[in-house]
Write a structure and sequence with these properties.
This protein has seven domains: 11-21 and 143-365, no CATH class; 58-139, Ubiquitin-like (UB roll), CATH 3.10.20; 373-477, Immunoglobulin-like; 482-567; 572-685, Immunoglobulin-like (Sandwich), CATH 2.60.40.10; 694-782, no CATH class; 846-883, no CATH class. Helices cover 10% and strands 30% of the residues. The strands form 13 sheets. Strands 3, 9, 10, 12, 13 and 17 form a six-stranded antiparallel beta sheet that branches. Strand 44 (718-720) and strand 45 form a beta hairpin. The longest helix is centred in the first third of the chain and has 14 residues, at 90-103. It starts with 10 loop residues before the first strand and ends in a 22-residue tail after the last helix.
Length: 883
């Protein structure tokens, strides 16, 4: 014996797997409870009613009175399976009692007695009733020995290729770990308890610190005992075996605490956390041990099976083995929450992986022995409309690996359905569903534009006998665009639209009638393309070519969009109404005329008015308090004019911008809404005086382009609706900008004059909206104060320009003598001599060209006798009297 404890432990020999020795089973009195709420709950088992069922002798039961004629008063319970029908265990009797009470709610536990062979005696209203043992119990079927497991997965290195490292298998079986886990499962006590025995690495492959794991099913109520055995090969064909048994109040905690060296990483992880070496919960432990290779190195069917197993898992037991060719046996015994008949009711995953970064792994799925089957379901699609997403035509069990459509003939399961010319039918597995894949299309062919196929669905799995569904019908139904005509004065309603589409609906052989089609109006547009509220079809104008789009959804999920054209008799048109763009908080200075209302075939327009963009078109448009908008229709009601002097205030919440949405309504003698225009807007744009001036540096000159760009620093011309759509968007280039000579918008004239010096120069810019509304914005231009380095009263820039030295106070523009003739340039220019010619001085200037310099002539004139005279002289001959 390898257990050094009481003699109830023993070595047993089995014929399952390749190992001959594993641990004996044992029962321990105090269990570990597994639940979703607490991983370490220690609670003894109790009956549903608080008391164990009464046990009586068989002879005593036979002496009871059987009143068969009143047997119907007590209902037969559901039958249970037991391991021994001649000697029921206490647990079996408790199960029988529960089912009797369930079938007969009027009874209490103390009224019922269960015999050792399953016969039940019931005392009720002073009478005794007997339920025969053949009604209450049956012999449980024997469990087949062993279970079906998947061979170990590929050995994978971090690059996803087969590993050639020192941790690769040594058995010469390539890179696949075959039979990496041997197992045996036993149902005990009529399916109320289970014993699971696992031998890891039975072939003694070389592993580097492998992590071994067992999942614990949700149906396990508590573990009541654990046995372990480690077998280490020594030299000379000898083995070192180490065995342990754990049967305290908490076998799992005791097993974990036995991890004295801290090297074997014993732990248990539940949904709410972990105990032992790993403290993380089930999700994290599952991913680390199993989930990382799911999908990467497994088929879709295996991945789905793994996900299903996880859903029915309460926790994972984990421990680490040593470096070398160890094999380990781990056995636990547990009480189940409810008795089971077959081990397949307890899905588990058992396996191990390398602790090293190479992530080699070998795992064994316990295959849930679900029969391979497929249940087909009819599917309906729109003819001539390719699928944009898959639709379900069947549901599978047993994790098939492929699915296809086959002929409806019962004689063969190999004949694949061939689509008709032009049809495309692609099937695939999506989780557990068989679907027609996106891109599949069935064309309509007969006079009703409907068609279809009667087929069967076949699913296959790894060479097993395929499963075939009963015949199903894949049908194509039809609906198309259509047109309706309304009478003037009749608003369009939702029923008008759906009724028009229904008239085009043809279902052929499909069982999907019109009531099963989901209808939804998704878009409504006027003849000019303007969107209308889809929930208010009455807003449609009385015009030709209104468009209403309807989305139709079949029970299969396949969708189609059809368009209904809504026409009204065209008596009046209301078109070409443009947005009226004004400046916020600025009185308009020009009239604005828009719109074109026309009567058809001489129809007389009797009235026209403006209404808001939605709601009752009979209402006349009103404006917010403080806003003034004056509009008049022309005498023939064909156009509307917004008069100058209107004012629309800005709204702070929209950065000063605001708007009104309007429509023009024209009426005739027959209808007060003979024509309704598309929506148009009164839109308030925003611009203010720039908050900062244009500051020029010395020597720079401001430009008209620079001033205009400065104006638009505060411009706002785009407003968004609440739903995120653009209300209006007037680009900067749509605004005309002109530099003018004053800030009076009525009298200002365009100018090219710009300031060249000084501070706080005001430049006026007139901005005009696309609707002809003006506003004048003022831009401040600053030039720097002139620099006079030498303090002679002349700025440096002027001295440089005129040739004097800005650093010499004695050198000024008035002292510059370019030709060096002793006369300053200023004087020479003033008196007519050439400042660039030294021979030309003020003393040599001869204005009349008579050979006498002006200076000389002026001196002689002062003699008071007479002026010199020549025929070219400007001076006339005069006599001056002597004094």
């Amino acid at each position: 014996m390898f257990f050094k404890r009481q003699q109830r432990y023993s070595i047993r020999k089995y014929k399952v797997g390749v190992f001959s020795v594993f641990l004996g089973s044992f029962i321990l009195s105090v269990p570990l409870a597994f639940s979703n709420s607490q991983a370490n709950a220690f609670e003894p088992s109790k009956t549903e009613h608080g008391n164990a069922p009464s046990v009586v002798d068989d002879n005593e039961i036979l002496n009871k009175v059987v009143l068969s004629e009143e047997k119907e008063i007590i209902q037969d319970p559901e039958q249970i399976a037991v391991a021994d029908i001649t000697n029921l265990s206490a647990n079996d009797k408790e199960r029988v009692l529960k089912r009797v009470l369930k079938a007969n709610p009027q009874l209490r536990a103390e009224m019922v007695t269960v015999g050792s062979d399953g016969t039940v005696s019931v005392t009720y209203k002073d009478k005794v009733y007997v339920i025969d043992k053949t009604v209450t119990v049956r012999l449980a079927e024997k469990l087949p020995e062993g279970a079906s497991f998947r061979d170990g997965g590929f050995i994978i290195n971090p690059n996803g290729e087969p590993s050639n490292s020192e941790y690769e298998w040594t058995r010469g079986e390539g890179n696949v770990a075959h039979n990496s886990v041997d197992t045996k499962f036993e149902l005990l006590k009529g399916g109320r308890e289970i014993k699971v025995t696992v031998q890891f690495n039975p072939h003694e492959d070389a592993w580097a610190n492998p992590l071994y794991y067992l999942t614990i099913p949700e149906k396990v109520e508590r573990i009541i005992g654990i046995d372990t055995l480690t077998s280490e090969p020594l030299t000379g064909g000898r083995y070192k075996e180490t065995a342990q048994g754990y049967a305290g109040d908490n076998p799992v905690s005791e097993w974990i605490s036995e991890n004295r060296t801290g090297s074997d990483f014993r732990s248990y992880s539940s949904k709410n956390g972990g105990q032992g070496y790993y403290k993380d919960n089930l999700d994290r432990r599952w991913y680390d041990l199993i989930g990382w290779q799911m999908g990467k190195y497994t088929s879709d069917a295996e991945r789905r099976m793994g996900e299903d197993i996880k859903k029915e898992t309460a926790g994972i037991l984990v421990f680490r083995g040593g470096v070398g060719k160890f094999k380990h046996v781990f056995e636990y015994r547990a009480i189940l929450k409810e008795p089971i008949r077959d081990i397949s009711e307890l899905p588990m995953m058992i396996g191990f992986k390398s602790y090293q970064n190479s992530q080699n792994f070998a795992r064994a799925y316990m295959r849930i022995p679900v029969p391979l089957e497929v249940n087909g379901q009819s599917g309906t699609v729109w003819s001539d409309e390719p699928l944009t997403k898959p639709i379900v035509i069947g549901h599978t069990e047993g994790y098939p690996t492929s699915a296809r459509l086959i002929t409806n003939s019962q004689d063969t399961i190999d004949e694949v359905t061939n689509p008709a010319l032009g049809d495309t039918i692609n099937t695939k597995l999506k989780e557990k569903d068989v679907v027609l894949d996106a891109g599949s299309v069935i064309l309509g062919r007969d006079n009703t534009h409907t068609s279809g196929y009667t087929v069967r669905v076949r699913v296959d799995k790894n060479g097993k006998t395929p499963a075939v569904s009963s015949p199903i019908r894949i049908s194509a139904v039809h609906a198309t665009d259509t047109t309706i005509t309304k009478q003037s004065g009749q608003p369009t309603a939702e029923n008008d639209i759906y009724g028009a589409v229904q008239a085009t609906y043809q279902r052929g052989g499909s069982d999907v009638d019109w009531s099963k089609v989901t209808k939804e109006i998704i878009e409504v547009r006027t003849p000019t393309g303007e969107l209308v509220d889809k929930n208010n079809l009455s807003e449609l104008p009385e015009a030709q070519n209104n468009k209403v789009k309807v989305r139709l959804t079949l029970p299969s999920g396949h969708q189609k969009v059809v368009t209904v054209t809504v026409n009204y008799p065209q008596k009046v048109t209301a078109t070409e109404f443009s947005n009226y763009y004004v400046w916020a908080d600025t009185v308009t200075n020009n009239d604005f005329t828009t719109g074109n209302i026309q009567g058809v075939d001489g129809t007389v327009i009797t009235e026209a008015h403006l209404t808001n963009g939605g709601g009752d078109v009979s209402r006349v448009q009103t404006y917010a308090q403080g806003d003034t908008v004056t509009s008049v229709f022309s005498q023939d009601n064909r156009q509307v004019t917004f008069k100058k002097g209107s004012l629309v205030r800005g709204v702070e919440s929209t950065q000063g911008m605001s708007q009104y949405t309007l429509r023009a309504v024209a009426g005739t003698r027959d209808s007060n809404r003979a024509a309704i225009s598309d929506r148009f807007k009164i839109a308030a744009l925003v611009v203010t005086n720039p908050t900062t001036p244009i500051d020029k540096t010395e020597g720079e000159q401001v430009t008209a382009e620079e001033i205009k760009n400065k104006v638009f620093e505060t411009y706002k011309g785009k407003l968004m609706e609440v739903d995120g759509k653009v209300a209006f968007d007037v680009k900067q280039e749509s605004i005309k900008a002109v530099i003018v000579n004053s800030d009076d918008v009525d009298t200002a004239m365009e100018t090219t004059a710009l300031p060249t010096s000084g501070k706080n120069n005001k430049v006026y810019v007139k901005l005009t909206t696309p609707s002809g509304q003006d506003k004048i914005v003022t831009v401040i231009v600053n030039y720097p104060e002139p620099v006079d380095t030498d303090g002679d009263g002349f700025p440096d820039v002027e001295e440089k320009e005129k040739g004097s030295n800005p650093n010499d106070a004695t050198s000024t523009p008035n002292t510059v003598d370019t030709d060096g003739d002793g006369f300053p340039d200023v004087e020479e220019k003033e008196k007519g001599s050439n400042p660039n010619d030294a021979t030309s001085t003020p003393n040599t200037v001869d204005t009349d060209g008579d050979g006498f310099p002006d200076v000389e002539e002026k001196k002689r004139k002062q003699s008071k006798r007479c002026d010199f005279y020549t025929k070219h002289s400007r001076y006339r001959w005069r006599w001056f009297p002597r004094r």
